[in-house]
Amino acid sequence: MPKVKTNSSAKKRFKLTGTGKIKRKSAYKSHILTKKTTKQKRNLTHAALVSDGDTGNVKRMLAIGK
């Protein structure tokens, strides 16, 4: 049985926390920042957790679990 490869784009975008949850960066923070308010950009700085519905797909891409 061959090894399961990790998705290269996913390993750059997601990190695992100590409790096994998956951290992600907020979207909309890379370009077109002039029209966004300072408060909006500051709130996009914080990391968030992947939602429960998407956790299975992300874990499959990261080859976590099975």
Report on this model:
- With 66 residues, the chain is α+β, with helices and mostly antiparallel strands.
- The protein has 3 helices and 3 strands.
- A 3-stranded antiparallel sheet has the order 1-2-3.
- The model has no long low-confidence stretch (mean pLDDT 94).
Going across the biggest sheet, name each strand in turn: 1-2-3
- Main beta-sheet strand count, sense and barrel state: 3 strands, antiparallel
CA-based gyration radius: 15 Å
**Count, helices:** 3
Which segments are poorly predicted (pLDDT under 50) over 5 or more consecutive residues?
none
Q: What is the H/E order?
A: HEEHEH
What would the average pLDDT be, to the nearest integer?
94
Shape: elongated
What's the count of strands?
3
Short description:
The protein is of the alpha+beta class and 66 residues long.
Annotate the secondary structure layout.
Layout: H1 8-13, E1 14-16, E2 22-24, H2 38-43, E3 48-49, H3 52-61
Antiparallel strand pairs: 1-2, 2-3
Descriptive terms for the model:
single chain; 66 residues; alpha+beta; three-stranded antiparallel β-sheet; 3 helices; 12% strand; elongated
